[in-house]
Amino acid sequence: MPITDDLRKTLSDPTPLYALAGAGDLAVEKLREVPEIAASIAADRKGAQEKATARLQEAGAKLNEAQAKVSETVNTLPTDLKALQERAQTLALQSVGRAAEFAVKAREVYDELAERGKVVVDRQRKEAADELTEIAAKAESKADVFAAEIVEPEPATAPEPADEAEAPAAKPTAKRTTPRRTTPKA
Question: Does residue 177 fall inside a structural domain?
């Protein structure tokens, strides 16, 4: 049953929904900033082109440096296989450590988005509840007005029969039976 309990807990957890709502809210927030950024870029277009050209030249210089370092590293690679294995193990351990760091960071971001989404969902629920309350109040007031306008006829009384023979027979009531409970003898 632990698997069933885990599955039930997973399917009833609203945290992924909250995270999705939080991510959507964050995306909307960031998209609202785009027009301002676009306007500032358009205003500084010429300056941006000059900066881009300078950065491109700078990147080219860094690429040349990186190529030189790669060439140097390739030329100085240890020829000993054991040294290469040790270096590979070290890099693998560093990668595992970084992966763990990224997993922790991803969990933090996920939790932040879930909290933000919970706020968004709660706000939407409150707005929907307020709207439904308004609609119900309007419907109730219209129903009161409509009920006041309707004149209900009084029910006509049926003449009572003069004779018992003419009186309709009373419906027989069904007899309710319950099973007997017996206690086992010891």
Answer: no
Longest distance between any two alpha carbons in the chain, whole Å = 125
Residue 185 lies in a domain: no
Average pLDDT taken over every residue of the chain: 79
Tell how far CA 32 is from the center of its chain.
21
Which has the higher per-residue pLDDT, 162 or 15?
A: 15
Place of tokens 């308004």: 134
Tell me which residue of 117, 125, 139, 156 sits closest to 29, measured CA to CA: 117
Count structural domains, the chain: 1
Look up the pTM and report it.
0.42
Residue 128: band (very low, low, confident or very high) from pLDDT cuts 50, 70, 90: very high
Query: What 8-state DSSP symbol labels residue 167?
Result: S
Q: What whole-number distance in Å separates Cα of residue 16 and Cα of residue 14?
A: 6
How far is 117 from 24, CA to CA, in rounded Å?
Answer: 8
Instruction: Please give the residue range of the domain that contains residue 36.
Output: 11-147
